[in-house]
Design a protein that fits this description.
11 helices; seven-stranded mixed β-sheet; alpha/beta; single chain
């Protein structure tokens, strides 16, 4: 991202964004249990007021968990909004909290899988699905050692500037999503772990339809290509938001054996299956607000 000075954003049209950022910064100084309390209330307010996204969440959960009763599905949806509300207020911690505080609020599980790959000098791709703790997980991981990741900037240039600086503050290298993957490949080949987010519906381009909870879902085929091009091991990295403001847990799982296989559909199916397993462990924390099944196979009706 091109270097931009904050002085470029002194025009009054940026003042609402500055106010919002100031609020986020102020909230970040509160104890995490207090933030969690306010976040749960914010989440339920969003649940009540944002009918369109509430509908998306209910549809996604109904599609993925048809075996559950409507009451249980609705309970997961409400829990999701409460956890999402806390995530919105937690953002400032990831962006501005000191490294020492960030370390206190996060801990690792399964760290041996990551450490072993590092000791063996293997190239590493961290498979980081869209759980609500994703941002803090990425920033905290980059505090251990530099990583490279893909950055999708918002349209608001001031917010994009602040977000970029926050995510890169411990030395992470961020590549804009619409740029060639050359930088990702080069850095991963040099031994810089790639923190890769593979599981949103971005249409048909560079995608295949692979089952996700038994439903054909447009799924990027980039992960197996990157793994092959960089000769990297793929280690799932799942960040969990702990209840009651107790912090975050970053869970490294065993690397995927015999991946990639050379079959893009089989590989993306396997990737989705790994994500499914994590979702079933904490269904309220997957990013259900996203229209995961928006792109449909030709002739299939839409869900939303």
């Amino acid at each position: 991202m091109a270097e931009t000075r904050l002085s470029h954003f002194l025009h009054p049209r940026w003042w609402p964004t500055w106010i919002g950022l100031g609020f986020m910064r102020g909230v970040s100084w509160l104890p995490l249990p207090v933030i969690a309390l306010f976040g749960r209330a914010l989440g339920m307010l969003l649940y009540a007021l944002h009918a369109s996204r509430r509908h998306v969440v209910h549809v996604n959960i109904r599609l993925c968990f048809p075996e559950l009763s409507p009451n249980v599905q609705a309970r997961i949806a409400r829990k999701h909004f409460r956890a999402f509300g806390q995530t919105l207020l937690d953002i400032g911690i990831g962006w501005w909290a000191s490294e020492s505080r960030l370390r206190r609020l996060t801990h690792f599980r399964g760290r041996e899988h990551y450490d072993q790959a590092l000791r063996e000098n293997k190239n590493i791709i961290l498979l980081a699905p869209h759980f609500l703790g994703l941002d803090i997980g990425g920033i905290r991981t980059s505090a251990e050692r530099p990583v490279i990741s893909v950055f999708r900037h918002p349209d608001n240039k001031l917010l994009a500037h602040v977000m970029y600086r926050a995510r890169a503050r411990f030395g992470a290298h961020l590549v804009e999503h619409n740029k060639p993957f050359t930088a990702l490949v080069k850095q991963t080949k040099k031994g810089v772990p790639l923190y890769y987010l593979p599981d949103q519906d971005a249409g048909r381009r560079n995608s295949v339809f692979a089952p996700f909870f038994g439903i054909p879902a447009a799924t990027f085929i980039v992960l197996p290509r990157l793994a092959e091009m960089t000769n990297a091991v793929v280690i799932p990295c799942i960040t969990r938001q702990l209840s009651g403001g107790r912090g975050y847990e970053i869970n490294f799982r065993p690397s995927l054996n015999n991946f990639p296989s050379g079959d893009p559909v089989a590989d993306t199916t396997r990737m989705n299956r790994e994500i499914e397993e994590a979702v079933r462990e904490m269904p309220e924390q997957y990013f259900w607000l996203h229209k995961r099944f928006k792109t449909r196979p030709k002739g299939d009706p839409g869900f939303y």
